[in-house]
Design goal:
Order of helices and strands: HHHHHHHHHHH
CATH architecture of the largest domain: Orthogonal Bundle
Mean pLDDT: 91
Strand content: under 5%
Number of domains: 2
Shape: elongated
CATH topology of the largest domain: Tetracycline Repressor, domain 2
Oligomer: single chain
Low-confidence stretches: none
Radius of gyration: 21 Å
Largest sheet: none
Distance between the termini: 38 Å
């Protein structure tokens, strides 16, 4: 088997480490297991990363799309702990959600149903893109207090609060259903999207569901729950067309 270039080996290390840290947490991750997952010996692994701390930092660099354009000096040095925490904080804050940000700048949209659908589609895509690194953060936070503070103390509550403010504003304008508590409603939305875009993929029955059918179904479900009855009529034809397309796709694949 030909020897892989160093940058490809480093990438394979990052991918393997992401999976293992996400399953086992920080203390439960063994560098020997990461090396095996990357297809190399433990000794070779340490020619790429100096320590377990450097390995975790590499996971966050890769997960948040901050991969260097050129290969850095190897082995990657053990970072300062606060540098790793700052990397995570910046990464979580920098996850792009332009449709949501645009919606927050509009008082009353002309098409509230279309706006909501775009926001849900965007959030579903974001979760699908970032869940491997978010799983690492959530799993390791129980063992790393600073990580716990950044994710569970700041980032996650912020996601719920921001979406809650959007739902409350649109409900006040009569464009979405009013809920007893907008932040709880926001959490229902995010948890629903997260289960289908992320958690179901970790289950043994994930193959039972076609990814695109799942995506469209959960978005249609949430739209139906959040839009008032008067708005449902405006999206009926679009929904019927989409359902028909998905049914045809399912028949073709079977």
């Amino acid at each position: 088997m030909p020897r892989l270039p160093a940058n490809e080996r480093l990438l394979s290390i990052a991918v393997a480490a992401t999976g293992i840290f996400g399953r086992a947490g920080y203390r439960g991750t063994r560098t020997a297991d990461v090396a095996a997952g990357a297809g190399m010996s433990a000794g070779l692994l340490f020619t790429y990363v100096e320590s377990k701390e450097a390995l975790l930092h590499l996971v966050f660099v890769h997960g948040f799309g901050q991969w260097p354009q050129s290969l850095p000096p190897l082995p990657l040095a053990t970072p300062d702990h606060q540098d790793t925490i700052a990397l995570v904080e910046r990464g979580l804050a920098g996850i792009p959600m332009p449709r949501f940000q645009a919606a927050m700048g509009v008082e009353e949209p002309g098409d509230a149903a279309g706006e909501l659908r775009q926001i849900l589609e965007e959030r579903y895509a974001v979760i699908g893109r970032y869940w491997p690194v978010i799983r690492v953060i959530a799993r390791c936070a129980a063992e790393i207090p600073d990580l716990e503070a950044v994710y569970f103390g700041q980032a996650r509550p912020g996601y719920y609060a921001d979406l809650g403010r959007y739902l409350e504003r649109r409900a006040a304008a009569g464009l979405l259903r009013a809920m007893p508590d907008s932040t709880v409603a926001a959490r229902v939305v995010i948890e629903s999207l997260s289960w289908f875009a992320w958690h179901r993929l970790e289950g043994r029955d994930a193959i039972l569901y076609d990814d695109e059918t799942v995506r469209r179904t959960v978005i249609e479900f949430l739209c139906a729950a959040l839009l008032p009855d008067s708005a449902q009529v405006t999206t009926t034809e679009r929904s019927r067309s989409e359902v028909s397309r998905l049914r045809l796709l399912a028949v073709e694949r079977s």
